Amino acid sequence: MEHFHRYAQPFDYEGGEEGCLLIHGFTGTPAHMRLLGESLHKGGYTVKGILLKGHGTKMEDMEKVTWQDWLQDAVTGYEVLRRTCSKVYVMGLSMGGVLSLLLAEQYPVDKVVPIAAPIRIYDRKAHGAPLLKYFQKFKMWGGSGESSASEEFTDYKLGYDGFSVEALCHLLKLMKMAEKGLRQIQCPALVVQSKTDETVRPVSAQIIYDRIKAFQKEILWLERSKHVCTIGPEREMMHKKIHEFLQRT
């Protein structure tokens, strides 16, 4: 497998007995999670940043994968950490956040951190993907995608410029599954969401918070970050809050 950038590859940082599974989002790469991973590793955690199938290579590879592949990637990463770590914390960005919720619904995850997890999205046309896929194979992301270095850590801004419409159908499936099972989550949860997210409606965070059954749960609201907030201007503050959350008994 040839990755389009070295930061698009999965990463593993060996640390202590507590492990963190990091899951990137739809069309993204582990690069979006690497800064968080490095911060967690400095805090003494063992960190595993996985690469979801169909990502990090070329956009056409997205056509070959399904939601089952992505969920299995997440499960495999969790199981690898569970074999060697006394506790496993799962955190993911966007679709990775959805996968983190599904893991917390189905497995004994110790703590979960869904970041910009899409329960509600702005693009209503996305829900037409099951029909659109018969007429259009790929769709490019809208907008210029440009942002200044003061807004985002651009060295880690690595992902596809578009996506497979067929793959979008599988993302929508994961979103429905995760929302349906929210009440099964009982582990402590830190829900992270930016109020200025251009992709995910901020109400998504409130829906997650309201429906999960965790005794310990909170929302971290970001004020100035875009959707890929893990490389945004509030990333260091987010790192601090996640560290505090993981250390809390």
Automatic annotation (TrEMBL):
Q: Which InterPro entries match?
A: AB_hydrolase_fold, Esterase_lipase, Hydrolase_4, MAG_DAG_Lipase
- Identify one Pfam family in the record: Hydrolase_4
Q: Which Gene3D superfamilies match?
A: alpha/beta hydrolase
Domain (Serine aminopeptidase S33) ranges:
20-227
Q: For this UniProt entry, which residues form the secretion signal?
A: none
Per UniProt, where does substrate bind? 26, 95
* Molecular-function GO terms, alphabetical: carboxylic ester hydrolase activity
Active-site annotation: 94, 197, 227
For this protein, the record's PANTHER family field holds: PHOSPHOLIPASE-RELATED
Q: What is the protein named? A: Esterase
